[in-house]
Amino acid sequence: MSQRSMNRLRAEEISVGYPGRTVLDAMSLDIPDGKVTAIVGPNACGKSTLLRALARLIPTQGGRVMLDGRPIEKQRSRQVARRLAILPQSPAAPEGLTVLDLVRRGRTPHQSVLRQWSRADAEAVERALSLAGLEGLSSRMLDTLSGGQRQRAWIAMALAQDPELLLLDEPTTYLDLPRQIELLALIRQLNRDAGLTVAMVLHDVNLAARFADHIVALKDGKVRRQGPPAEVVTAETMQEVFSLPCTVIRDPVHGRPHVIPA
């Protein structure tokens, strides 16, 4: 069986756009199972559009997104939500929610008119709060949290869905560098300890190289390079994708490639 047929989430020749503009042009892409994938590229290259298309939040104009071997658009929304969770950039919640209120909303795909709140729901919420390191903050109001704590709360809500795939659109936006490192370390830990397959859009190539197993470099709606960090984060790729003259060295602490702009 080929690697392409084994990965649970993949795009097959998808085209996505808006009136008068094509954003993704016949793009094919696999999200490797059990890995952390970082999607990088210059502004307006289609990173967020790709993530939204993979989650079926926007329709494709050609090609198809496959989830577990079936076209995602032919699957019921509730079934998709039980396997795949997406956290958009800068998510918003109604005023007056506590952390617990928000995380409980992650159980919606598992409930119905005949199946309301259950012990399994409570256990899933408790587990999500624990994984995100928020056990002591469950009663806090969302608007009283720091930026990093708030992002953890949103991730906990996604984890409460019990997904096998987690898509994150620029999860480090508005966080200072220590909080970025903290959040990406949490994502890495969730991948390793909970077995989550993760795909996330990141702006910082050095952070992508440090925390991801697989990097996809986009430019002008096309995949220019993809593979392990050492194969993608090269001076040649940085010039091709970002028009950035640079030197790439081996990080002496983590052994990952590190970009030094010229």
Automatic annotation (TrEMBL):
| InterPro entries referenced in this protein's UniProt entry, alphabetically | AAA+_ATPase (IPR003593), ABC_transporter-like_ATP-bd (IPR003439), ABC_transporter-like_CS (IPR017871), P-loop_NTPase (IPR027417), Siderophore_ABC-ATPase (IPR051535)
Keywords, comma-separated and alphabetical = ATP-binding, Cell membrane, Ion transport, Iron, Iron transport, Membrane, Nucleotide-binding, Transport
Q: What is its main location?
A: membrane
Domain of life, per UniProt, equals Bacteria
Q: Where in the cell is it found?
A: Cell membrane
The record, for CDD domains, names: ABC_Iron-Siderophores_B12_Hemin
Mention one GO biological process in which this protein takes part, according to its record.
iron ion transport
UniProt GO molecular function: ATP binding; ATP hydrolysis activity
Q: How the protein sits in the membrane? A: Peripheral membrane protein
Please list the residue ranges annotated as the ABC transporter domain: 9-245
One Gene Ontology cellular component: plasma membrane
Which family is this sequence assigned to?
Answer: Belongs to the ABC transporter superfamily.
This one is known as Iron complex transport system ATP-binding protein
This chain's source organism reads: Oceanicella actignis
